[in-house]
Predict the 3D structure of the following.
Amino acid sequence: MSISSLFSCSTCNGQDKDDSDSVRPMAVAGSFYPADKDSVMQMMKEYFHPFENAKGETGVAAVIVPHAGYVFSGAVAASAFARIAPERKYEHVFLLGPSHHIYMDGASVNNRFAAYATPLGNVKVDTSLCNQLIKNCSAFSYNSAAHDKEHCLEVQLPFLIYQLKNMPSIVPVIIASQTLATIEKIAEALKPYFNDKNLFVISSDFSHYPSYKDACEVDKRTGDAIEKGSLDEFLEALSVNDEKGIRNLATSACGQSPIATLLYLIKGNKNIRINHVQYRNSGDSPYGDHQQVVGYHSFVFSRETGMDEAFTLTESERNTLLSIARTSIKNKFAREKKSACNKTELTPTLKMYCGAFVTLNEGGQLRGCIGHFGSDIPLYQVVEEMAKEAAFGDPRFYPLQQGELARVDIEISVLSPMKRIHSIDEFTLGKQGIYISKGGRSGTFLPQVAEETDWTKEEFLGHCARDKAGIGWDGWKDADLYTYEAVVFKEK
């Protein structure tokens, strides 16, 4: 079974001499990225700056990042790498990318160089592990033509060097196969290494050469499938994109084979959380146009950590968030554009990237409630924005009047990342909230809704499906279901 036709070049079977003591030279320095250290460091500082106060995750298992020229996709790549805790120590980084130069029914592992050169220094290759992969699996071999001019792996190295305090050795793998059976074979060989000791970096751009508008549509379909973690849905999305006959669309993802490998690796693993971090395309760059673009997604795949470990908030931190919420509403009334807090005084926890809901109650009655699920904004900023939305943007209520503010009590729910479930047996009523998505419609109930009602689990889901998502009482039965937990606290 073929995933898609990605390559048009014939296979080169030439073998080089063993030069495992040498350093692989940079193939695209000076074109995809600067060749000198200072310029690359300056670009890294610029791309990572928006995340400099973020508390990275120690449980990151894999990322999907683009590999275009830095001026086009560097910021998107950094948005995923920045989620990795800098102090995290990995034993290896497995670099998986597609071949832009040759086709072969398998994968080429670069075991012929002791290191890869970068403007920020050399990165060691674990040649022993590379040799072991080739020895143990017939899908692996070494083909110099797959690596000599290939850019998709080397462009990731400066991001890793910049973010990680301890840069581990790498295992460079170019997957140049169109055959699903071969992809599965490659994934099976890599599965013993897909553990909490190693990081997998999947290198891929997305739609190639449609218009800006068409790229957004195509890339959303592909990205949604990846976020669900389903190999079958990913392959279906690729097929739908092809069938639509979109003008100038050459591929939905040049790295679809490495992506498929990762999705095969996580198949059946309920402890993997997938977070879509950012999407842009080359038309968003000052160097690109909107006629023919290339799409760029970034994703982070993390191993679940316990709610208590990731979302403990001290009493002082809770009071700070409540103060931020109230101050942001006051500032809105006063037409002040200043921040609702002093960012330099915030703890690392308050700068974590996670979702939150802000609820306003007046006289014991709901007066507004708006939240943000994504983990793309720091917590303090989510609370600041959602407080204003709850006061002035909840479509169920008239905008809050200034005289009401003194009578309003503020409640905040800090959310854990959502986890996809496949049975309601995995949902704990009263402890977890539910998020239901189907056909472009979605709705949620926070965990505390269970305390305020006398509903059974099925009634909780039915009300959410009908009243919040608008998909009918039984709509949850064939919808995508996600659970999350919340740390809930309020004024008074």
Remarks:
- Confidence is low (pLDDT under 50) at residues 1-20, 306-310.
- The longest helix spans residues 315-334.
- The chain has 13 helices and 19 strands.
